[in-house]
Amino acid sequence: MTRPVSNRAPHVKEWRLSLYLSEHDPDTTARIVLDTGDNVMESRAEARRNPYDASVPEIGDELAAGRALIAMGRRLLRAADGDMKATGAAESDMPAPLWQPYGE
Questions:
Q1: Residue 101: its pLDDT value, please?
Q2: CATH architecture of 16-84
Q3: Distances (CA, A) of 64 to 70, 76, 102
Q4: Is the pLDDT of residue 102 over 70?
Q5: How large is the average pLDDT for residues 55-81?
Q6: What are the sequence ranges of the domains in the chain?
Q7: pTM recorded for the entire structure
Q8: Coiled-coil ranges per the record (predicted)?
Q9: What are phi and psi of 83, to 5 degrees?
Q10: How far apart are the first and last CA of the chain?
Q11: Which of 32, 46, 70, 84 is the most exposed place for a label (fewest CB within 10 A)?
């Protein structure tokens, strides 16, 4: 069983993430706004339905939202990397991307 390193109570933060989806067939756009209390970050992504495919809006929502979340993750990693460098931390390799950026 693991034990806390100290007797100090954990510090809890709440970040608010809002995800907005907009569909204009065949395009779906996702916009994410992340409010950390100290900063506000935003990312966007799109999905486009092939005109020969059946119209299933949930698929466009999932693709656009997933891509926007990945873009937000990249922004957070870049921000953390910049913050670490600003504090004089040793250089480190950024994690390899899951795949090439879409629309960044």
A1: 56
A2: 2-Layer Sandwich (3.30)
A3: 10, 18, 10
A4: no
A5: 95
A6: 16-84
A7: 0.77
A8: none
A9: -65, -40
A10: 43
A11: 84
